[in-house]
């Protein structure tokens, strides 16, 4: 590898930072070209280091990196947008970090995806609107973009019976399909059909529409969504 190929610029969002070694930071960055990747900011916590105070969590900017066999090194970071307001608001910081950590489990390393980049950016941009509801919506829409979930048909997977008119249906968390009472699987959850309809609605609408508009979603549906996310977490 020639010297010129060892260095590169990358625009991205710093999603996480973790102290490692003697004053170094291990960063998780979502880059426009690289997707999610790790980089070490060597000495970033040391006084008089050029990176000190520059590599802030949630900052969006451009970095200059050098390739390493293990983890690349960050040489310089220039922030365009810092989102200091999030860091100052302890409650929001905690809730945003919690959802980003959950999201992190599903986002593969080094897969370029501009849609995911834009989505993470939008999530940070709307930081003051993020709560349990919009955080869950964020995860659901992310899982949809990554191909983990899709709309659920209100039809029995076993006997093909149309279940649109049934009040309750059985939802199998393993294959994320619906069953009627007769065909239900052992591990399926009894849920209201309405929850399935609401779930499909979330998948049909954009993140903006969902967090800006009236929610109209009951807590119940988030119970289903929590279980679904928990189950998918076990798969990855
Ligand atoms: Zn059936």
Automatic annotation (TrEMBL):
It comes from the Bacteria. Gene3D superfamilies: Nucleic acid-binding proteins (2.40.50.140). Keywords: DNA damage, DNA recombination, DNA repair. Pfam families: RecO_N. Coiled coil: none annotated. The keyword DNA repair applies. GO terms for biological process: DNA recombination; double-strand break repair. Residues 10-71 form the DNA replication/recombination mediator RecO N-terminal domain. GO terms for cellular component: bacterial nucleoid. Belongs to the RecO family. Involved in DNA repair and RecF pathway recombination. This is DNA repair protein RecO. It comes from Dictyoglomus turgidum (strain DSM 6724 / Z-1310). The gene is recO.
């Amino acid at each position: 590898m020639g010297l010129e190929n060892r260095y590169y610029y990358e625009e991205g969002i710093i999603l996480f930072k973790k102290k490692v070694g003697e004053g170094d930071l291990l960063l998780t960055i979502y880059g426009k070209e690289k997707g999610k990747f790790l980089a070490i900011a060597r000495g970033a916590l040391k006084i008089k280091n050029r990176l000190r105070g520059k590599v802030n969590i949630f900052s969006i900017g451009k970095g200059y990196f050098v390739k390493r066999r293990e983890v690349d090194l960050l040489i310089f970071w220039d922030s365009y947008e810092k989102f200091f307001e999030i860091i100052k608001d302890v409650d929001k910081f905690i809730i945003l970090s919690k959802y980003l950590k959950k999201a992190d489990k599903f986002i593969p390393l080094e897969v370029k995806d501009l849609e995911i980049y834009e989505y993470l950016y939008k999530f940070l941009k709307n930081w003051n609107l993020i709560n349990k509801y919009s955080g869950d919506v964020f995860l659901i829409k992310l899982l949809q973009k990554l191909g983990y979930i899709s709309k659920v048909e209100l039809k029995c997977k076993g006997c093909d019976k149309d279940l649109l008119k049934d009040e309750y249906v059985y939802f199998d968390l393993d294959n994320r399909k619906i069953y009627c009472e007769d065909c239900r699987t052992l591990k399926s959850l009894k849920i209201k059909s309405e929850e399935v309809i609401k779930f499909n609605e979330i998948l049909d609408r954009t993140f903006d529409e969902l967090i800006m508009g009236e929610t109209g979603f009951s807590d119940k549906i988030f119970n289903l969504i929590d279980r679904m996310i928990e189950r998918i977490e076990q798969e990855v």
